[in-house]
Amino acid sequence: MKIGQIRQSLSGFYDIYADGQLYRTRARGNFRKRKITPLVGDQVEFESTTPQEGYLLKILDRENELVRPPVANVDLAIVVTATTEQEFSTNLLDRQLVALEVAGVHSVIYMTKTDLLSDEIYAERQKLAAAYEKIGYQVIMGRHAFEADTLTAVKQALAGHVAVVMGQTGAGKSTLLNHLQPGLDLATGEISQALNRGKHTTRKVSLIEVADGLVADTPGFSSYEVFDIPATDLTHYFPEFVRLSVDCKYRGCVHINEPHCAVKEALAAGEVLASRYDNYLQFYETIKNKKVIYNKKK
Fold first, then answer.
1. Fewer CB within a 10 Å sphere, N or C end of the chain?
2. Has 220 been labeled as part of a binding site?
3. Is 129 annotated among the ligand-binding residues?
């Protein structure tokens, strides 16, 4: 029996890295019976007679797991955000950041397609980037596409981490990875203007060695599921709200209807992004109104 890390998942096969090489395995049938899905990034026990044939036996305890993308034991996320007016969405960006905060994954924002922006819109994106940096997020952006300085900053962020590169389909995830690691030749695609939904250009989930780290290139997506947390906990995943809440009059303040709320006071003073607060309200209401579905078929 060996212990290794799942590096790739494709059509029921799991490629496991151990002892300096990859082993192709299948999961035992009891995983399906127990409704357990092995994820890329999992540390696992497996047996293998040859590198081409083996069985995955046990998944070791996970530090965390993400749903979109489906990866385990991640400690860094590069959130690739297209900045063009058609594609840019603070709502999607904040959904991603909150989902990562819930999972306990550190986030770095990488802004793409800045070369397509007018000087006026670029200045707006710079101002927004500065606001996110004030919150505590590292934001990497340059005036031109995939500048050397921005690529160096991403490489430095990735070193020593198991990371996901995530974002809306067509935002530039695969293109970024191709620039970071020439020769990967990952499939890339354009946003479909007719439906404003991306064509899925990445077919498998895999961990790739990039810049002294491991990076998952994963299927794209255009939206997020409702957060699986109580609405009253949402405030804990907005770092700027956490810092301000110590000055709220009421313990457990959710910063909506309560008087003497430090978050609302900071919002009125322009110290909290209005878009962040608006998205917080929307997420709060969505979680609060979420219906529990019993006996849901998977």
1. C
2. no
3. no
The verdict on whether residue 183 carries a ligand-binding annotation is no
The answer to whether 123 is a known ligand-binding residue is no
Indicate if the pLDDT at residue 266 is higher than 80. Answer: yes
The answer to the question of whether 261 is labelled as a binding residue is yes
**Is 255 annotated as belonging to a binding site?**
yes
pLDDT of residue 291: 61
pLDDT, tens only, 184-196: 765 544 333 333 3
Q: Is 114 annotated as a binding residue?
A: yes
Closest-CA residue to 169 (of 142, 196, 146): 196
Judge whether 66 and 40 are in contact, CB under 8 Å. no
Is 172 annotated as contributing to ligand binding?
Answer: yes
| Domains of the chain, start order | 2-59 (2.40.50.140), 76-217 (3.40.50.300), 231-288 (1.10.40.50)
Confidence (pLDDT) at 186: 59
Is residue 11 a known part of a binding site?
no
The reply, when asked if residue 206 is annotated as ligand binding, is: no
pLDDT at 170: 81
**Hunting for tokens 């998942």 — which residue is that?**
9
Tell whether residue 171 is among the known ligand binding residues: yes
Residue 142 marked as a ligand binder: no
